[in-house]
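dumping this here before i forget
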Amino acid sequence: MSASIQAPPSQVPLLDLKAQYATLRAEAQEALRRVCESQQFIGGPEVQRLEEEVAAYSGCEHGIGMSSGTDALLCAMMALGIGPGDEVIVPSFTFFATGGCVSRLGARPVFADVCPRTYNLRATDVEAKLSPRTKLIVPVHLFGQVADMDPILALASKRGIPVMEDAAQSIGAARGGRKSGQFGTITTLSFFPSKNLGAFGDAGMILTSDAALAEKCRLLRNHGAQPKYYHALVGGNFRLDALQAAVLRIKLPHLEAWTEARRENARRYDQLFAGSPVGTPWVAPDCRMIFNQYVVRVQRRDALRAHLDSLRIGTEVYYPVPLHMQQCFADLGGKAGDLPNSESAAKEVLALPIYPELPAAWLEYVAETILTFVKQGA
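structure:
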C-alpha cells in the first residue's frame, strides 16, 4: 500500500455514474437526439439493433428487449408456462425479483441454499429440493460470477426441467470458456443504471437460442398481440423504450474496457486485503468474473459499515434478508436456520466501491480505512 493519503477524499461513492457519463456525453446526447428526431419511441431499429448486438456479444441467437430485468424474469417464466401448482427452485440469497416473479405467476418459489464461497446456487441443495412439481430451476450468477452450472444442468436434464439463468449481474462473465447466457434454456439480463451495462432508467433483455421460445417472448411482451389487436396469448406491456436502447448501444462497445477496469480494481483490493481478516471474493479458477460488485466478508459488518458511512465512503449490503425469511413469504414456512449459508452471508457481506472510474488513491483509502477498523477491533 502507498503511504497514507494526507488529504483523504471528502466522499467516495459506491458508484459514480456522473464520471462515466462525462466520458460519453457527446455520444449519449447524439443517440438521444437521433431517437427524438425519429419520434419512434417504442420498438423500431434502435431496439432491434441492440437486441442483435447484445445477443452477439453474449453468444446467443436471439435477444428480446424488455422494459426491465424484473419484467424479463416474469416474461421468460410466462413463456416457459410457469403457473399455479408449479414449483420453481431459486436461491434464497439474491435480489427479490428472482423469487417474487415466481409468486406473481401463482407458482411456489422453493428456496435453496448457496455456496458459502461464491454465494451462487448450490447443486446439492437443488437436488434436495426437487419434487414432482418442480418445473424450473433458476440459478443467479451473483455479483458477476457464473454459477457452477454443470451439476445443475445435469440434474435438470435428468428430470427434463428447463434451467433459466438470471444473469442480471453477469453480462460478459464466463465459466469454462462459455459466457453467461450460453448454459440454460433462457437467460434474463438487467440494464438497471447501476449494472456494468446500465441504461438511463429501467431496461432488460431476454436471451435464448430457441427460436420458438424467442418468438413467444416477443409476443408476450406486447400483450400477446399478433397482429395488432389480435391476442393469441395474455401477455403484458414489457416493451423496451427506444431511448434506452439507443443509450445502451453507445455503451456496449465500452463494456469490455469497463469490465477490465473493474477486474483490475478487484485485483488491487485483493492485494491490499491479503493476510487480513477481510474475506475477499473467491473466484473459481475457470471463471471470468466481471465484478458487478466487489463483496467482502467481515465480522462486525454493520459497525464497519456505519464507520465507513461516517467518513462518506459508500457501501451496500447485498442482501440483508434472505428470501426464505422475507415477511411476504412467511406462508411458505421458512425460518432461521433453514439455509445457513444464505443467512450467514446476509449478516457478513459488504459491497465496496469498484466502478471503473474509481481513482486508485480512493481505492487505497477505502482499503486502508477498512484495515484500520478491522485491526482495532481484533
